[in-house]
């Protein structure tokens, strides 16, 4: 009897081993977005997305639209938690998190990415696009996609762009020509291309974080700033810079990025869902921002700011200088400028 029981025990243990080896007792869990995602169809994902813009900015509306599209297109398999307002750190911090896989998605400024890849400087070629529609169409071209691909070796997968405003110039004293800019200290978003542009105009560019710009202008540390109208309204820059030159000299792209390992670990169907969702969010945010241009200008005017135009021809020689320098920097920049100039 004892021998029989021992035989039965051995038989049961052997059966359990065989069952585990065949996967019969396992159940596939949620493919959470921490770099451990599987690749089969029907996976579930809990993504995290970070960006530096405040919750009431068009960037966050783009993030909300992306989350909505992912949820709908995946039948609820893809959810997303948003971290706006720099909750996860600066652009540099979030890019590191994207590279390591601790962050799944990020909206990163094109300005920061120029410090990682020269090719992104192409978007800052002055006076290249007349409208948001033109910039959005350019973002779907082969050369624009080739620029995104320059980040592939860093563990990043940049999939799309969207546009949140043209750059304008705001001053404490009225400036009516490039010659008037010489000698001024201007807050400029940190980027080699942007800083080069303003130095060519004779300005001294200062890299100041957005939360500190108001005080810098109020105390006279800077004479003005390059800024989009959205930020000018939400941060009340009209109170410290009474004059706004509507130069619209550069578009302002945000780059939509996902961790590369996460993306490549997805099924083709899920990769397509991510790409299509990003495209929908890009078009939504870009066109909504275009519709807000007049509204923002009216708001700043009502607050007492003087808005005015400057003849774009006054900047021709500086534009040519930028083109010549940056075309020589990277073949993709040359191709991009030649295609859209």
Description of the structure:
This protein is an alpha/beta fold and 341 residues long. The protein has one domain: D-Maltodextrin-Binding Protein, domain 2, CATH 3.40.190.170. It contains 15 helices and 11 strands. The strands form 2 sheets. Strands 7-6-8-5-9-11 form a 6-stranded mixed β-sheet. A 5-stranded mixed β-sheet has the order 2-1-3-10-4, sandwiched between helices. Helix 2 runs antiparallel to helix 12. The longest helix has 24 residues. The N terminus is likely disordered.
Features:
D-Maltodextrin-Binding Protein, domain 2; 11 strands; alpha/beta; single chain; five-stranded mixed sheet; 15 helices; six-stranded mixed sheet; 341 residues; globular; 17% strand
Radius of gyration: 25 Å
The counted number of beta strands is 11
- Structural domain count: 1
Unreliable spans are 1-40
Helix content: 40-55%
Average pLDDT taken over every residue: 89
Helix and strand sequence: HEHEHEHHHEEHEHEHEHEEHHHEHH
Oligomeric form: single chain
CATH superfamily: Bacterial extracellular solute-binding protein, family 7
Number of helices: 15
As for the CATH topology, it is: D-Maltodextrin-Binding Protein, domain 2
Question: CATH top level?
Answer: Alpha Beta
- From the N-terminal CA to the C-terminal CA, the straight-line distance is 92 Å
Helix and strand content put the structural class at alpha/beta
């Amino acid at each position: 009897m004892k021998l029989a029981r021992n035989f039965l025990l051995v038989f049961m243990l052997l059966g359990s081993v065989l069952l585990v080896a065949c996967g019969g007792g396992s159940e596939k869990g949620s493919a959470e977005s921490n770099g451990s995602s599987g690749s089969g169809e029907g996976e579930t994902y809990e993504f995290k997305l970070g960006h530096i813009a405040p919750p009431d900015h068009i960037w966050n509306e783009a993030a909300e639209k992306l989350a909505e599209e992912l949820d709908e297109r995946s039948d609820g398999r893809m959810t997303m938690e948003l971290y706006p307002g720099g909750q996860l750190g600066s652009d540099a911090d979030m890019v590191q998190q994207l590279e390591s896989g601790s962050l799944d998605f990020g909206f990163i400024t094109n300005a920061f990415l120029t410090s990682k890849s020269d090719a992104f400087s192409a978007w800052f070629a002055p006076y290249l696009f007349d409208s948001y529609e033109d910039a959005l169409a350019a973002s779907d071209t082969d050369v624009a996609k080739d620029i995104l691909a320059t980040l592939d070796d860093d563990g990043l997968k940049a999939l799309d762009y969207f546009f949140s405003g043209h750059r304008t110039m705001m001053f404490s004293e009225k400036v009516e020509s490039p010659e008037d800019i010489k000698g001024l200290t201007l807050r400029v978003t940190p980027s080699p291309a942007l800083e080069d542009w303003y130095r060519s105009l004779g300005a001294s560019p200062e890299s100041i974080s957005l939360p500190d710009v108001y005080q810098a202008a109020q105390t006279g540390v800077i004479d003005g700033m390059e800024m989009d109208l959205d930020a000018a309204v939400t941060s009340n820059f009209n109170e410290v810079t009474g004059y706004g030159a509507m130069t619209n000299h550069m578009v302002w792209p945000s780059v939509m990025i996902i961790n590369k390992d996460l993306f490549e670990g997805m099924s083709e169907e899920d990769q397509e869902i991510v790409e299509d969702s990003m495209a929908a969010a890009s078009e939504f945010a870009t066109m909504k921002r275009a519709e807000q241009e007049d509204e923002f200008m009216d708001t700043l005017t009502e607050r007492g700011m003087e808005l005015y135009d400057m003849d774009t021809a006054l900047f021709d020689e500086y534009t040519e200088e930028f083109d010549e320098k940056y075309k020589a920097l990277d073949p993709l920049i040359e191709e991009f400028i030649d295609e859209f100039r």
